[in-house]
């Protein structure tokens, strides 16, 4: 998954993503789901205006029980990355699974494009989940994402396990104390560098909180040749979680793989975590 851009290319990509999303808002379709809604809300954390894309199952009503799938985008993207399944097959898998299982599918900005689940992004996602549960009969909540998104789903779950029923982390990291990439962006989101805010980085390192994560199903994908987000920490975390909760952890590790997940592996990871019952 090509999830990182710099300088003018990043600005151009974000502007294009925004334009694409707005232009296609009325016409883009995922078979089995209604047209996307671009939802704006006021963040309780700081009063700012934030957004997420929402897809509802066709014919859905607020009284129908329904699972919630939240997709977190990668570094350099925003909420509209969910519409890029034709380019990134793991995103297509997320859309297909949500449609087949009649799930509500949400893709938030979570302080796009480079939040790495900092405090503001964390607060926004808590708010989104709580508000969805307040207005709909949400039976289960699943998080999934790749790269920065794959990292962020792990961080959020470690901090708010009570809000999550299953996690799919694709090509992410589980240790922000160890991770050396995107240093400036992460420092901006976390309020400083590791040397300045070590407690914040430890707090956002799920590997260091493995004992809290062993109670829900989790699936990981990783590539042995991933130089963007190296796989070592998620390999260690998955092994530790398997010890705690045998049979509820799936690691799909491809020795020759890079910073991407195939459609087949993404489907396997998603179905492993969700499993029956189907809402």
CATH topology: Rossmann fold
Biggest sheet, strands in spatial order?
1-2-4-3-5-6-7-8
Mean of residue pLDDT?
A: 90
- Count the strands? 8
Give the N-terminus to C-terminus distance in angstroms.
30 Å
Rough outline = globular
**Structural domain count:** 1
Any idea what the radius of gyration is? 17 Å
Strand content: 15-25%
Pattern of helices and strands? HEEEHEHEHEHHEHEH
CATH architecture designation: 3-Layer(aba) Sandwich
At the first level of CATH, what is the class?
Alpha Beta
Number of helices: 8
Classified in CATH, the superfamily is Alpha/Beta hydrolase fold, catalytic domain
Characteristic terms for this protein:
8-stranded mixed β-sheet; 8 helices; 18% strand; disordered N terminus; 279 residues; single chain; Rossmann fold; alpha/beta
In short:
The chain is α/β, with parallel strands linked by helices and 279 residues long.
Give the helix/strand layout.
Layout: H1 7-24, E1 37-42, E2 49-55, E3 66-72, H2 89-100, E4 104-108, H3 119-135, E5 138-146, H4 148-159, E6 166-170, H5 183-190, H6 198-203, E7 218-223, H7 232-244, E8 249-254, H8 263-274
Parallel strand pairs: 3-4, 3-5, 5-6, 6-7, 7-8
Antiparallel strand pairs: 1-2, 2-4
Helix pairs in contact: 2-8
């Amino acid at each position: 998954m090509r999830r990182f851009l710099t300088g003018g290319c990043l600005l151009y990509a974000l502007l294009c993503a925004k334009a694409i999303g707005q232009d296609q808002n009325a016409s883009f379709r995922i078979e089995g789901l209604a047209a996307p809604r671009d939802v704006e809300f006021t963040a309780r954390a700081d009063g700012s205006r934030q957004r997420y894309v929402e897809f509802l199952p066709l014919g859905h009503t607020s009284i129908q029980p329904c699972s919630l799938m939240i997709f977190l985008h990668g570094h350099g993207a925003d909420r509209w990355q969910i519409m890029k399944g034709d380019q990134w097959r793991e995103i297509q898998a997320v859309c297909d699974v949500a449609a087949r299982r009649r799930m509500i599918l949400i893709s938030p900005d979570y302080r796009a494009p480079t939040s790495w689940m900092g405090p503001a992004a964390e607060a926004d996602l808590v708010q989104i989940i709580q508000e969805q549960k307040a207005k709909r009969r949400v039976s289960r909540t699943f998080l999934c994402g790749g790269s920065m998104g794959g990292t962020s789903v792990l961080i959020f779950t470690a901090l708010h396990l009570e809000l999550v029923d299953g996690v799919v982390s694709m090509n992410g990291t589980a240790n922000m104390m160890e991770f050396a990439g995107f240093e400036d962006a992460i420092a901006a989101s976390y309020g400083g560098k590791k040397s300045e805010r070590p407690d914040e980085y430890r707090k956002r390192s799920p590997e260091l909180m493995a004992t809290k994560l062993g109670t829900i199903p989790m699936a990981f994908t990783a590539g042995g040749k991933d130089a963007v987000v190296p796989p070592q920490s998620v390999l260690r975390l998955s092994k530790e979680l398997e010890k705690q909760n045998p049979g509820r952890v799936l690691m799909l590790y491809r020795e020759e793989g890079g910073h991407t997940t195939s459609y087949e592996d993404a489907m396997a990871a998603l179905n492993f975590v969700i499993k029956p019952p189907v809402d």
